[in-house]
Amino acid sequence: YRIDASTRTGKPNAFSYFTQIAYFAFIRRIVKEKKQADIKFKFMEQANIEEFVSAIDLNSPIDQSFLDTLREKISRIQDTDKAVKDFAKEEKEKKKKGLELLMAHA
């Protein structure tokens, strides 16, 4: 954003400037929290989940179902993340190939 740029009235659009700052700060925060959640889930997966849950009885069907639900949730999140990353990678390759075709015809 160029602060010296002016609108039709001749004055800079301060609202747009602050809106962009807030928007991109929000996006950065979401990305940061997602990375932290990924680290936490990966750590819980590599270590035993049972170690993180206090006062759990492994012989209890309720506690065991809770652990199973937690494991399923972690794997579902990882599958979704992998699918999103694969899709983004495919889209990037398509865009790259489209640009290469355009440059080949020029």
Radius of gyration: 24 Å
* SS summary, helix count: 2
The helix-and-strand class reads mainly alpha
Low-pLDDT runs: none
Number of domains: 2
Give the N-terminus to C-terminus distance in angstroms.
32 Å
Shape, per Cα inertia axes: flat
How are helices and strands ordered from N to C?
HH
Kindly estimate the percentage of residues that lie in beta strands according to DSSP. under 5%
User: Portion of residues in helices?
Assistant: over 70%
Please give the number of β-strands: 0
- What is the mean predicted local confidence, pLDDT? 77
Describe this structure in words.
This protein has 106 residues and is mostly helical. The protein has two domains: 1-47; 53-106. The chain has two helices and no strands. It has helices spanning 14-46, 61-105. The longest helix is centred in the C-terminal third of the chain and has 45 residues, at 61-105. It is flat, with a radius of gyration of 24 Å. It starts with 13 loop residues before the first helix and ends with a helix.
Task: Record the SSE blueprint.
Layout lengths: L13 H33 L14 H45 L1
Q: Care to give the gist of this entry?
A:
The chain is built from 2 helices and no strands.
Please name the defining characteristics of this protein:
106 residues, mainly alpha, 2 domains, 2 helices, flat
